[in-house]
Design brief:
- By secondary structure, the protein is of the alpha+beta class.
- It folds into two domains: about 70 residues, 2-Layer Sandwich (Alpha-Beta Plaits); about 30 residues, no CATH class.
- A three-stranded antiparallel β-sheet has the order 1-3-2, with helices on one face. The protein has a two-stranded antiparallel sheet with strand order 4-5.
- The site of zinc ion (ZN) has 8 residues, from loops.
Length: about 100
């Protein structure tokens, strides 16, 4: 097991895990249920972590994460299908409810 990165939010962590799975890299999310511990644990310890099963995949996994973090070409703002909030076009998740576009 090898810790790849941390994600700011749980939906973000799940998205990264799915992207890694699509690339054939076995990954899992840790700290999934630690969000309720905010205030008791040091802040960063409650962030969801993405771990990969095989350290040999880490270079490839990092490029998947890097491609995800690279902003997409600019476009019009998009309304969320779930809550109707408008997010900038380069957002991959609704800032309000975390739904994937
Ligand atoms: Zn939304």
């Amino acid at each position: 097991m090898h810790r790849l990165c941390t994600a700011a939010t749980l939906p973000e962590a799940h998205l990264l895990r799915d992207l890694l799975a699509q690339a054939g890299i076995e990954a899992m999310v840790f700290n999934e249920h630690a969000q309720g511990g905010l205030g008791e644990l040091p802040f960063t310890h409650a962030w969801p972590e993405i771990w990969i099963a095989s350290p040999a995949d880490s270079d490839r996994a990092r490029s998947v994460v890097a491609a995800h973090e690279r902003p997409a070409p600019a476009g019009p703002d998009r309304p969320c299908f779930a809550c109707g909030e408008v997010s900038p076009a380069h957002f991959q998740l609704c800032w309000q409810c975390g739904r994937e576009f």
